[in-house]
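Worked example (supplementary).
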Amino acid sequence: MSIVITGTKRISPEILRAFAPFGVATVHEAQGRTGLLASYMRPIWAGARLVGSAVTVSVPPADNWMLHLAVEQCGAGDVLVVAPTSPSDAGYFGELLATSLAALGVVGLIIEAGVRDVAALGDMKFPVWSKAISAQGTVKETLGSVNIPLVCAGQLVHPGDLIVADDDGIVVVARGSASEVLAASEARERKEEATRARLKAGELGLDVYGMREALAKKGLKYQPAPAED
Amino acid sequence: MSIVITGTKRISPEILRAFAPFGVATVHEAQGRTGLLASYMRPIWAGARLVGSAVTVSVPPADNWMLHLAVEQCGAGDVLVVAPTSPSDAGYFGELLATSLAALGVVGLIIEAGVRDVAALGDMKFPVWSKAISAQGTVKETLGSVNIPLVCAGQLVHPGDLIVADDDGIVVVARGSASEVLAASEARERKEEATRARLKAGELGLDVYGMREALAKKGLKYQPAPAED
Amino acid sequence: MSIVITGTKRISPEILRAFAPFGVATVHEAQGRTGLLASYMRPIWAGARLVGSAVTVSVPPADNWMLHLAVEQCGAGDVLVVAPTSPSDAGYFGELLATSLAALGVVGLIIEAGVRDVAALGDMKFPVWSKAISAQGTVKETLGSVNIPLVCAGQLVHPGDLIVADDDGIVVVARGSASEVLAASEARERKEEATRARLKAGELGLDVYGMREALAKKGLKYQPAPAED
Amino acid sequence: MSIVITGTKRISPEILRAFAPFGVATVHEAQGRTGLLASYMRPIWAGARLVGSAVTVSVPPADNWMLHLAVEQCGAGDVLVVAPTSPSDAGYFGELLATSLAALGVVGLIIEAGVRDVAALGDMKFPVWSKAISAQGTVKETLGSVNIPLVCAGQLVHPGDLIVADDDGIVVVARGSASEVLAASEARERKEEATRARLKAGELGLDVYGMREALAKKGLKYQPAPAED
Amino acid sequence: MSIVITGTKRISPEILRAFAPFGVATVHEAQGRTGLLASYMRPIWAGARLVGSAVTVSVPPADNWMLHLAVEQCGAGDVLVVAPTSPSDAGYFGELLATSLAALGVVGLIIEAGVRDVAALGDMKFPVWSKAISAQGTVKETLGSVNIPLVCAGQLVHPGDLIVADDDGIVVVARGSASEVLAASEARERKEEATRARLKAGELGLDVYGMREALAKKGLKYQPAPAED
Amino acid sequence: MSIVITGTKRISPEILRAFAPFGVATVHEAQGRTGLLASYMRPIWAGARLVGSAVTVSVPPADNWMLHLAVEQCGAGDVLVVAPTSPSDAGYFGELLATSLAALGVVGLIIEAGVRDVAALGDMKFPVWSKAISAQGTVKETLGSVNIPLVCAGQLVHPGDLIVADDDGIVVVARGSASEVLAASEARERKEEATRARLKAGELGLDVYGMREALAKKGLKYQPAPAED
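After joint prediction of all chains, the assembly is encoded as:
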């Protein structure tokens, strides 16, 4: 059942660039509050951020052989999305693999497992989101697959899907929906810009969003605190 | 059972200012090792720190409607203390709500749930302690309550209680005990100052604290390591 | 069963210095992928790093009395390795104990429990790896032991073992194996240096490591993506 | 801060008996979906069930001295509700304490920590809900308190509150609300009885509860599956 | 984005019956060690077991409205597979919903969230696998979807996929692969039957499976224990 | 570093038999509250219980090859103690391995990982304590070791150590201390027998254990509840 799919479709560089200003929360909302990977996936250095086109890798537990194979399938603008076939926190990935990926223009790594050499990865500013940090070594004994659809941290990811990641987490957008989600992200951002200015000036969200009527209809009650408590 | 209590008592600005020099560990010890919220509550940026008067918010799971209501009850020196009625890691709070709170002089947020836009919150230096970081969107469908007593991360918090938070965690002090705990914190700090100087000079804690007799009475034994091991 | 063993053997200063360039991942691999403490042990400030000779401390849950005793057994180049006899996340250790240890030349702390005053510890650049951060105070009621073999975060540690810790975690090397593991670490580092240069130049790991034949033998298949997906 | 409060009020035997038919889910719903302890509290034997009047015990971590004190404050119809001042999974409670409590007519134990002798407790049919099962021994060194309000597994419990526990978990009802919640539980149970019969006969909940209009108003769409998938 | 897909394809009753003798471990191995849901999904009563055709339900956190809708789409031989759009341990499901499903011939429930009334569900012998047991009530405010592909406990499930569940966990088999996996399960079972008899007679697996040569080739070494240890 | 040590020493059948009446809590207390494995290790069927002589197995993550090797080293009265070199919840062990072990007189399994076929293991009454239940298959690619000292669930276990396990957990006793711990267990049991009778008759532990003076010395205060609360 092991296979390497070659020549998969990518998100176009134009789309990747256009997503650059948008954070994970914005994109997640813009596509109807879907696509978020589990919140135990965390960046290994604060401020990391990426937009990329997914190259997926299904790996055996504690065996990183397939990562070396996946590198060959990667190019500029890609992001490696790695999930083990059974849970593992071992350190699949470190400075040498990052050096190799960076040399090819790969923009980062999403891995539902462990990574190591995190100080060096931070120095290189190589963006990584992982489930664990662990120096635990892995073996190279068992095959997996590259560029098959897989579930990573609770979300289905196809090769060539759009990945956006930042300090808030990671969101996946299906390749076919990227343009539509881009437009919705832009619209949302414009709307928030106006709201932000009003809130900064001290207006209340209750008024900015016009919530008072709906709250009253739900039966909201106000009551003064007792004079002496 | 939903209600918004208005006009609750606050900790006075003088007391809030007087607590500024004291860390969570000091205040926790000064009130007899009580009042600490669970250690899974972590600051979203290193170095965050606050002293404030609690405005409490009881929220439904994955529904942040009540936060918008709570904002209206807040003023300078307040800190929002939020607990869901059943566990949720959703991202209840982000940059727009922080903008609104900051405009009103609110000093920070304690939330036993998730937050998002954490990079922006760090840039704004808006202090937040949360159970999770998650971009997960919330709905606005169900009411909760503002300024009722609630349990947040294992501690009972009343509106108007004193909250101190730093990199070590969060401690709550009952409003009626604030002056007494302040005096005890000052006393403890003075005592530690003297101890610190002696330890820095190389004296042992065993002697500084006079522990040797008590240890001997408990039956402590010393034994040299074998010559060859 | 409480005892303090005095005058235990140490790793020599020369060996400690010689290990300085090597990270945890390198040392762990160099001794055959063994010796790693559990990955829930994390540094309390990014960039912390140490090489030291273990002084072990077995402590009761939520009771830090033995830490004060352990200090007296410590000297330059030592690292305190602390494990509770039953799980506890209480804050056993803070700024005052760190001040005392630093005055004696101790290089850091490994503790399978909680610590506090983490902002101050970061300012002092005192390296600490812990299971939790918690301001929770401890008592001084029950004895434990110093310099007995103990299990810390899943690894057996003897007094006088070598400890290496960095952002990737913590590895223990038996005192008797330190020279051998040092040599293996140096060899591994030299080899990686060469690999790094080739990967940086864009060569693939598949070729650098000569993996293609073994992969083919395992039955690896390549398949082009369908023209239209 | 240690104290034993004697002679606290109890829930009357009539009220305790009247609650016997109602499960935790029913009581929790009947009081407006409040009062539920955290779901990590589990019965140590399947089928355990109790209704009792709370005797609260605040205990130090891994120290069970106060349990012996609490026994003296207990009588028929009481349930011990125990919470440690900082988290502990140690085995505070076993067969001997259960023997003592059973001799006094105490109906069970709720403890946010560990218990042991669980096979014997099951043989005795002594009901226990705990956070952990652990043989870990405890000490008798530090005082705590009996019959003070405390937070157990996320809920505030006062001495004399009503506790209902079964395979679904644990719910607390304030002493002053017991009669009102009893009436609401009875009403809910009657209503469910009628619903149960209709559902058993094959009617759909959509019709029994009259949900179709509200769903349509929310915009629910139906769509047939494609002929060939 | 809410939708109810009607008239989805099912696994045929013949296939469902044919899978009855096979456990989760067998089916999982027979389809190449894939398809297993996460191990935190546990049966609520020991000995529960089912084979069914999936009706999938995507639900909002702590909102069980869609379950009532899903019931209408269910028939004999179906199993409800439920996943929340963000994590929730609330009690979505209890005795009344089970009564309704049982009346329609539904064989059980798989839910990555909480359930309640577990004593009653056990008495009814209604099979349920869940992530949590919790009496926590849910609301009926927000729509979700029925019979869309979804990720449940880490596995992609399509409506009409085959689900096998027992005390070991849960495995999903794509509808199109069911016949092939059935044949492989039968073959595996036959082979194990023969092995079982030999092992029972005291033969060693090393010989039954013919492992000795491969082990020697890997470099396995035997060494007698020292005479005196 | 892989090795199989043959012909290791065992606990004598007489000692094993003599430990039969004693539970884990008793043995743990009798050896000074030491030797307990972590409480996440749970029996897979209620009422399981064993006393045995340890055969240790160090296994790679998700690779069960070494278990087959270990079987050959086992005999009557042995218990397999298995720990992975990095964390894994995979299902290393099932009915066939249990059949093989049972045929050789092995009394059970302790494994800090997953097992499967748990219904069959329960039917066979084969005692197993594990960290997880998972049908996840394992590979046979990498060597480990048999009968080397290892850390399992936080405790150091040597081949030939005594293992006692029951519903409360697992305790290890060093081979050399078995006779001494046996005597202490017998003494403790006798003492508890007398205490049990007095408690059953309604005497208070405060009096049976003579605690009142020590409590008063610690400063314990009693206070009647207010007349009206």
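Two points are worth noting when inspecting this output. The radius of gyration of chain A is 21 Å. The mean pLDDT of chain A is 96.
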